[in-house]
Amino acid sequence: MYQSLPRIPSKARPTLGMSGQGSTSQLDSLEATAADTAAPTITAESSEEEIQKAYEEWATNARFEYCDLSIQPSAAVQEARQRRIDEIAANHPTLQLTPDDAPSYMSAYNQEARMLTHSDIPKRNLAIAKELAVLTTNLPVAWNSSIFLRVDETRVDIIKALITGPEGTPYHNGCYLFDIFLGSSYNTAPPSVKYMTTNGGKFRFNPNLYAMLGNLKNPPEPFKDIILTHFRLKAKSIKAQLDDWLTKDDGRALAPLGSGYVTSNSGNANGNGGSGTGFRRDVEELKSLLDGLMRGEDPTVQPSSSGSAIPTPSATGTPSETGV
After folding, report:
1. What is the CA radius of gyration of the chain?
2. CB atoms within 10 A of CB 276
């Protein structure tokens, strides 16, 4: 069986509350509890430097955790599997059958992981253990860009990563998710990595805008807390970024899937062609979600106010529950 590494404690994350007074675009109160640092407090009068420091302290404590990435099959799936076993046993009475006890995982590599459930590859396990021991305290953390990892607590070859987009790129302040699987030939062969924040490659005019909207309205596990805290702490910075996008927007629509410019009015009538009215409306929706976060609202239960089809990234990689 796989080597199970010692788990580090879950790291505390900052919680944000609003007093109900003042502008919704201001941080009223921010408290972070860390295992080995004093809790930073951010108020509406806090400087940008203080906010950045709070973000980096939080990210340092939240960047690496072991967690449960398995998916428990529903009762209906378990019953279906048992019926299938019973059918096979009835038709082949001499055949010895046992239920499939391999769990499923929140990963694009679920099937590959299930196939290795009962494998024991000591050299590979040792290599993984050494590398994870380094990553626990050495993942890069900064205001401009950070990396967060979540590793399954019993299957350390199943990993999910979240990278925040760096400043000066089209991905600035966005949250981008990757599924990682360390296959049977690791580390003589590279890990398998799948980029999950694509919505099948169907993002419209500004992929970062729609990645932000999708992640806020449907944050994938196990990164929901990371994503919401990231956007809470960066709300003012992101709203300034949105204003800059609006200033630079030339109002010209893009064809679906970003295949080039289209005629001036095609796609703008309902806001689904890319830029123009629909783009501005979606920017305002994102601002509204950020304001709600700062008031302590949960954006995952807030209905869309734009009426446009906002893509939701298929970021969990949740597999179908199949197999006997």
Report:
1. 23
2. 20
